[in-house]
Amino acid sequence: MTSAAGSRTNITLRLALLAGALLAGFMTSVCIGDVCIEPVKALTVLTGGFAAGGTNAGVSTPGLSDILTQIRLPRTLIATTVGAALAVSGYILQALSRNPLADPYLTGVSSGAGLAVAIAIMIGVDFNFMPASAFAGGLLAALLVAQMARRAGGLSVTRLILAGVALSAVCGSLITLIITQSGSAPQAQGIIFWLAGGIAGRGWSDLTTLSLYTAGGIIATLFLSKQIRVLSLGDETAQALGVDVSRLQWLLLATAVLMCGAAVAASGLVAFVGLIAPNLARMLFVRDERVEIIATALIGAVLVMLSDLAARTLGQGQELPLGTLLSLVGGPFFLYLISTTKGEEV
Questions:
Q1: Mean pLDDT (whole number) for 293-322
Q2: CATH number of 79-340
Q3: Is the Cα dihedral 278, 306, 314, 169 positive or negative?
Q4: Which of 110, 246, 309, 343 is deepest in the core (most CB within 10 A)?
């Protein structure tokens, strides 16, 4: 009993530390930029003067308020939401394949969603319909990869990843073709900027759509957490325990693609978040799916938020691509996982 209580306390403490890291990163992100803002002033503006004892007189200016509420706050919230969406999407794909190497980017879902968004940009689709476009592209990519990875007894993880990488290359080539054949320089420029990954220029309207998809996806994943645990025992065992495996797999796949598509529409091709966050969550916590899902979302949110902060502050006079920065972290982490994970025959 004492051991169980101590374990719960340890889990609570670690979750609290992750939440604290998220809060600290949030304040750092809204305070640091071309114009540095003192935390007390930022809190005063964001809380409507509450942090200054009910008055903000002499503390902020209209310009400062606009920087915080119209630029930095929505951007930071979008980065946080994108990170959570991609992280939980990766968690789902890893649960489906029962392999820690699965990732929305590596399995072709991100690239399929990306191609759909590129086409949507070219034909002038409104942003509110971008997640739906990305969802359709991601789902089609997921179906193609799953079909190519199918074998007797289930899916081959090796084939899944190889097919995903191949499909990503094809989608990347098609996106390049769209750019080169574009008759509009602004549209082509927008696609190129989006491909590199970034949240610059996003605002409250972008956050509204993204947050709805992400919140719904995370809630659905938490609701299905017990079935995910049973699924981890194997398809036959799960079926014997009363789980409709086929229905569950489709629900999880749709949830993962929905969140990934919404994130891609908002941030472009941002790789490896769905690979890093779930694995770190499993390293930090015992086998508890709900705790892992919450921790995965928190880690992904912190990772993208801090990477976005680095993207807009490290460059001299220009913003660095968010996707490139995350790849510099995710690539070595992927190699580490390969070196410590037993291989599978194709």
A1: 88
A2: 1.10.3470.10
A3: positive
A4: 110
38-47, 106-115, 156-165, 222-231: lowest mean pLDDT where?
A: 156-165
Residue 320, SS3? coil
Q: How far does Cα 10 stand from its chain's mean position? A: 26
Other beta carbons less than 10 A from residue 289's beta carbon: 20
Task: Provide the pLDDT for residue 58.
Answer: 46
Distance CA 145, CA 247 (A): 18
Mean pLDDT to the nearest integer, 15-39: 88
Name, in order, each residue with C-beta under 8 angstroms of 82's C-beta and a sequence gap of 6 or more. 199, 210, 263, 266, 267, 270, 273, 304
The DSSP symbol for 343 reads -
Find out whether 308 and 32 touch, Cβ atoms under 8 Å.
Answer: no
Q: Are 278 and 215 in contact (CB under 8 A)?
A: no
Residue 67 has, within 13 A of its CA and on its CB side, a CA count of 16
Give residue 248's identity as a one-letter amino acid code: L
H or E element that contains 226 = helix 225-231
Angle, in degrees to the nearest 10, between helices 185-196 and 322-340:
40
> In angstroms, rounded to a whole number, what is the distance separating the alpha carbons of residues 10 and 24?
21
Q: Tokens 């209580």 identify what position?
A: 5
DSSP assignment of 81-111, as one string? HHHHHHHHHHHHHHHHHT-TT--TTTTTHHH
Write down the pLDDT at residue 221.
95
Confidence of residue 269 (pLDDT cuts 50, 70, 90): confident
Cα(162)–Cα(340) distance, integer angstroms: 19
Phi then psi for 150, rounded to 5 degrees?
A: -70, 140
CA atoms of 200 and 206, how far apart (whole Å): 11
Percent helix, strand and coil across the chain, each rounded to 5? 75, 0, 25
Q: Are 110 and 272 in contact (CB under 8 A)?
A: no
Find all residues with CB under 8 Å of 150, minimum gap 6, and list them: 156
